[in-house]
Amino acid sequence: MKDQLIIATAFEGTVRIYAATTTAIVEEARRIHNTWPTATAALGRTLTGTLIMGVMYDPLHRLTVRLVGDGPVGEILAVSNQRGTVKGDIVQPQVDLELNQFGKLDVAGAVGSGELIVLKDIGLKEPYQGVVPIVSGEIAEDFAYYFTKSEQTPSAVALGVLVNPDGGVRVAGGLIVQLMPGVTEETTSYLENCLSKMPPITTVLESGKGLTDLIAEVLGPIEVNLLEEIDVNYYCDCSYDKFKGPLLSLGDAELDAILQQQGCIEVKCHFCHQQYQYRKADLE
Ligand SMILES: [Zn+2]
């Protein structure tokens, strides 16, 4: 099934709701990076959060999220845009820890402590950068902390990845609810109550429910105004030409040294593992 993302509002526009299914995206990331279960969940949650975040800003060329923790998976990187595509990388994909005390994948243990760094490229010379400490390592809470602290937008974030016994991705998705200026106290406490009782997002998605059903199940019988529905996917925009520029910037001396030693220069894309080969004639 295709992954989808919906954007909706409620309570006369004072509440914004984003929901996405990312099962195919996370499975594609798992296949490319050969991640083991705990790493699959950590990368998958980061990809899902970054994907949803990417559709929030206008204008936006590119959104980069770096989760730089001191846990065994190392840094996790995700890049998305307004059009609903995302790609990612993880330093140590082969990480699978014991389940945590709740019987869940120990994502916080895999991520460790450190910083969540958000780079928003809106087409200016320098991207806008926001940095917050990793407060939980479970990733959803860390995105929520970023929105609340760095963007002054109180947000509830749920991100989930359910992994099959064979290591494949069974279901993945995310839900972000944000309070906009003008929201009433009554609405806020209603939402807090709903969200505190929310079942794991993967439980709802696993039962075959769609995104509008997910919102109805979590937020109850409220009127929801659907703004947009977007097909989303894992996509890497690398190309032979895109790597050529950075290679040329190494300078003739360095390029000649590598070419002499190896006959050609091989570059492998971090995000999709596509390999590109450059011979001397290609770089002149
Ligand atoms: Zn690529």
Question: What topology emerges from the helices and strands here?
Answer:
Elements: E1 3-10, E2 15-21, H1 23-33, H2 37-54, E3 62-69, E4 76-80, E5 85-90, H3 107-111, E6 114-121, E7 128-133, H4 140-150, E8 155-163, E9 169-179, H5 185-196, H6 201-206, H7 211-219, E10 224-234, H8 240-248, H9 252-262, E11 265-268, E12 275-278
The structure holds zinc ion.
Zinc ion binds next to loops.
Structure summarized in a few sentences:
The protein is of the alpha+beta class.
Q: Into how many domains do the coordinates divide?
A: 2
Name of the level-1 CATH class of the largest domain: Alpha Beta
Strand content: 25-35%
**Beta-strand segment tally:** 12
Strand order of the largest sheet: 7-6-3-4-5-10-1-2-9-8
Structure, described:
It is globular, with a radius of gyration of 20 Å. It has two domains: 3-234, Hsp33 domain, CATH 3.55.30.10; 240-283, CBS domain Like (Alpha-Beta Complex), CATH 3.90.1280.10. It is an alpha+beta fold and 284 residues long. Strands 7-6-3-4-5-10-1-2-9-8 form a ten-stranded mixed sheet, with helices on both faces. The chain has a two-stranded antiparallel ribbon with strand order 11-12. It is built from nine helices and twelve strands. Strand 11 and strand 12 form a beta hairpin. The structure holds zinc ion (ZN). Residues 236, 238, 269, 271-272, 274 line the site of zinc ion.
